Amino acid sequence: MLTPVVKLLTRKPLILDAGWALTDGLISRGLTPFRIFTLPLTILIDFIAFLFADIVLLESQAQARRVRRMLGVPKSKIKVLFTGLNETSFSLKSVQSALITDLKNRIEKLNFPITILFRGKINREAGFENILSAAHQLQDQAAFIFVVGNKDIDKKFPINCITLSEISDDDMKHIYLLADIALGQISSHPRLKYTIPHKAYEAGFFAITYVTSDSEGIREFLNSDSAFLLKEPFPESLVEAVSDLRNLELRTKYAKNIHQKYMEVASQSILNERFEEITAQLVITKARRSR
């Protein structure tokens, strides 16, 4: 609800960096009775915010089409800009922490040829049950690192899994460097048709092989050359992917390609340039209309 306030106070062109509609986030988590009750208010907040903004930034073309249909936002008002990530939070040189030293020791004790990283929320969109089932099937073949929330740290994991929570950006950088594969969303959740998970950009930045379900959303950023795309989001598909990716040459190819793609279209410098272009065009348009 800050959008109309800022607009009225500043009287200047306003860009709303939304990424997606609040309504979308509410619906994607499942419509419980309470969420159904709050849905009209959430839609109203989105409508007012988008109405008062001169430009609305959204994460993907598919998201833009969805917002236009759902909220009636004019096409001319919407610009697509990848969310990317804050590279500076991962770029500082640092001393390896005790947590990372312990993690290295635990991985070495497991003594598996490949280490797989899952980072994120344990929910339907992530396909956590599929990932956990695959981890069970790979108990004698791969180590898994699960970076999850505090509430999920005590869940039952197989013996080849290491669970962590409350990880700093600095430690997260070292964890990525320890992993051979990063997992995206392994599900067929409807939201994957129009969203690009944040961890896809992290995999690109760190140049690590990324395995994810094939979806309309992710294909706006990656393709079958830059990510290992699962045609079917099943545990068996993930197990087969891990088996294929034991090939170092194949992993190296995916890692190189995803990093190259990231640098071309989603790096911090590229997104800054794109944002400056959008801002400049908005200022020019407003100046012409005020004549």
Automatic annotation (TrEMBL):
Q: Which InterPro entries match?
A: Glyco_trans_1
Q: Where is the Glycosyl transferase family domain?
A: 112-258
- Which SUPFAM superfamilies does the entry link to? UDP-Glycosyltransferase/glycogen phosphorylase
- Assigned keywords, A-Z: Membrane, Transmembrane, Transmembrane helix
Q: Which residues cross the membrane?
A: 36-58
Q: Name one GO molecular function term.
A: glycosyltransferase activity
The protein's name: Unannotated protein
